[in-house]
Amino acid sequence: MMSATQMRHLKLWYAGRARNWPLADYEVDELGEGFADAMLFHPQHKSVPHPLTELVPEFTASPLAALRDAIARKNQGDFRRAYDALTSGCNGCHEASGFGFNVVVRPSHNPYSNQRYEP
């Protein structure tokens, strides 16, 4: 599930960078669904000290709301800040769950050359 989340995170970045707001909106929605699935199918994951049903919303709810708002207003500066807040939230969740070695960053290149991100 987290591999799909990583792909959505990457595609969200390129959609927002290209100001393709419908695609960015779609990717944010898909990220939210992926987080919901992770909580549903893995409410307690391995040796994680807290349930994912607590950790995921704590670290992602606010950044996802900020992303939705920035996308709705088509504000690229706010989008970048909200995207970075989501990335930070992902890393905070990884740290809190004992997976701090899995550090997420802004993508530096696009492995999906078969998709056009410009609107």
Word description of this protein:
- This protein is mainly alpha-helical.
- The chain has one domain (2-43, 50-96).
- It contains 4 helices and no strands.
- It has helices at residues 2-17, 21-41, 52-73, 76-96.
- The two termini are 28 Å apart.
Helicity range of the residues? 55-70%
Main sheet record: none
SSE sequence, one letter per element: HHHH
What shape does the CA trace take? globular
Q: Total helix count?
A: 4
Estimated radius of gyration: 14 Å
What structural category arises from helix and sheet content? mainly alpha
Q: Spans of 5+ residues with little confidence (pLDDT < 50)?
A: none
**How many β-strands, per DSSP?**
0
**What number is the mean pLDDT?**
95
> How many separate structural domains?
1
Portion of residues in beta strands equals under 5%
Q: Tell me the span between the first and last alpha carbons.
A: 28 Å
List key phrases describing it.
119 residues, mainly alpha, 4 helices, 0% strand
Quick synopsis:
With 119 residues, the chain is mostly helical. It has helices at residues 2-17, 21-41, 52-73, 76-96.
Question: Any chance you could write out the topology, listing elements then pairs?
Answer:
Layout: H1 2-17, H2 21-41, H3 52-73, H4 76-96
Helix pairs in contact: 1-2, 1-4, 2-3, 3-4
